[in-house]
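Onboarding guide, step 5: your first structure request.
Type a short instruction followed by the sequence, for example:

Predict the 3D structure of this protein.
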Amino acid sequence: MQTIERIDWGELPDGRRVELYNLSEGDITASISTLGATLVSLKTPDKDGRIEDIVLGFDTPQEYAQPGPYFGCVVGRVANRIARGKFSLDGKEYTLAINNGPNHLHGGLVGFDKRIWTAEKVDGSVRFSMTSADMEEGYPGVLTVTATYSLSGGNLRLDMEARSTAPTPVNLTNHSYFNLGGHSSGSILDHVSDPFPNFVSSSASLLASEQRYVAPCQVKW
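The system replies with structure tokens like these:
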């Protein structure tokens, strides 16, 4: 049986209220915040039936409001770095907010992770939505974004969609950190995963423009 619970999670230093949605099915519960459409926790049983929270996150909304590692949030408009905060589109150069050394990172000074999203229950899922204004953080076009979390058959799914009134770069992602032993279990250096991404950074600057193609492979963390 699936349930959705809405909780008044608290207040940010600037007075904005934050809600938490608990999406549950059986022994699995995903908690998502309206601040950044953030996956705050994902509690699930291990092979022995022990319930563990397998994503990293903070206990209060106030901690998410501070500069941090983007635990579990939806980042945008563009995830990763844009060199020197500049890009050209249709013959015009745009200058973005600088927030990571000389570069633009994860949407700028006030990225989607710091925005309060509107939440609604839709067919057993929770849909979070927000609007980014034209030239917000330097990006052209009014951008409407949705992030829909659903839990079915033991699988947590996130579907994201963005629509713009003008050509604009968009590269959304969820920025969760996973520890399959539970977030309090210690190091993940003995974990093994089969990742699907086809690109890895090839330079110390971690700029997306300096990535190279690699075939899918098994990675030991």
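Each response can be followed by summary notes, for example: The first strand starts at residue 2 and ends at 11.
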